[in-house]
Amino acid sequence: MTQDDFRDYASLCFERFGDRVSLWCTLNEPWVYSVAGYDTGRKAPGRCSKYVNGASVAGMSGYEAYIVSHNMLLAHAEAVQVFRKCDHIKNGQIGIAHNPLWYEPYDPSDPDDVEGCNRAMDFMIGWHHHPTAYGDYPDTMKKSVGDRLPSFTPEQSKKLIGSCDYVGINYYSSLFVKSIKHVDPTQPTWRTDQGVDWMKTNIDGKQIAKQGGSEWSFTYPTGLRNVLKYMKKNYDNPRILITENGYGEVADQSQSLFMYNPSIDTERLEYIEGHIHAIHQAIHEDGVRVEGYYVWSLLDNFEWNSGYGVRYGLYYIDYKDGLRRYPKMSALWLKEFLKFDQEDESSSSSAESKKEEKKESYGKQLLHSVQDSGALPAVLGSLFVVTATVGTSLFFKGSNN
């Protein structure tokens, strides 16, 4: 069975790397595999019903995705059982990395749209996290999907409950949700089971925030804070790691490095700074247990359906010049931010205030100096000197435990 194979694979990984790796993730963005692979057919293996895509060769939308996710959860549970018996993994932690959107109602005055946001969250993150917290799928899913949704045995539920030492959150964007009044029961999909449509604009025609480099990406740090508060409220304030967060810009593959200025990535810098601030608020004002943050990504890389057409890296990769790497402005900013984070923290509020002012002042100076510079080679030269060892992760010593 699939879960047995995954257990054996995980066991081998624990055996080979457990003495050097303490933080483990069994599944990364599981709903993407299930929905994109077996409901919309947009990703491998490309299965879906013909009423979703007339060119589809095989698949059953509204059925297969739930079976796939069910098996993934059982595989996760089996892997965790093995992990917990590995004595050579010191202080090990294991979990799942989810990638929720945050949803705002298309019409805040419409109770159906407000309730639609709750259903959408159950289908988005509750689908794969609820079983690891409570041993079963959310009630909204069971009611909507019915007998198309597999069920867990008592033994399986017992293995799933408490199987995540931390909750991984990959957050990028937020959307509006509009409730669907009528759904064709003969043509089910994961989306229609929720009874909602995802919307880029609200009833007033306004976007939720400034659009990023892809059609679904909007710079909305408040959405991340809301996701974190949602997890605290609905799942007993679990330990959380922000396992991915980043900004992608559309890349012009016809241009080489010196035909434009890739190092001045002000929008990425502002995106990262805004989301780190939202996390800070969630920790200190909302009491959420966020304990780590990872930027996606260190380098420009191959991005799913977008290929090399979207760049998320702190470092620019010149695909026209032997894959040479050049740090961007965001890399310099993050390096300095991490440097401040590692300084001794004073207990006095005035010292903390000065530290924050220094960070903000540095960020503004960096933005102005690079924006005012007309010489790309000079900018790149300064970046090379100070960002040779830039990191992409941040762990919060002051988080609530």
From TrEMBL:
<comment type="similarity">
    <text>Belongs to the glycosyl hydrolase 1 family.</text>
</comment>
<protein>
    <recommendedName>
        <fullName>thioglucosidase</fullName>
        <ecNumber>3.2.1.147</ecNumber>
    </recommendedName>
</protein>
<keyword id="KW-0472">Membrane</keyword>
<dbReference type="Pfam" id="PF00232">
    <property type="entry name" value="Glyco_hydro_1"/>
</dbReference>
<keyword id="KW-1133">Transmembrane helix</keyword>
<keyword id="KW-0926">Vacuole</keyword>
<dbReference type="InterPro" id="IPR017853">
    <property type="entry name" value="GH"/>
</dbReference>
<keyword id="KW-0812">Transmembrane</keyword>
<feature type="transmembrane region" description="Helical">
    <location>
        <begin position="374"/>
        <end position="396"/>
    </location>
</feature>
<comment type="function">
    <text>Degradation of glucosinolates (glucose residue linked by a thioglucoside bound to an amino acid derivative) to glucose, sulfate and any of the products: thiocyanates, isothiocyanates, nitriles, epithionitriles or oxazolidine-2-thiones.</text>
</comment>
<dbReference type="InterPro" id="IPR001360">
    <property type="entry name" value="Glyco_hydro_1"/>
</dbReference>
<dbReference type="GO" id="GO:0005773">
    <property type="term" value="C:vacuole"/>
</dbReference>
<dbReference type="GO" id="GO:0019137">
    <property type="term" value="F:thioglucosidase activity"/>
</dbReference>
<dbReference type="GO" id="GO:0005975">
    <property type="term" value="P:carbohydrate metabolic process"/>
</dbReference>
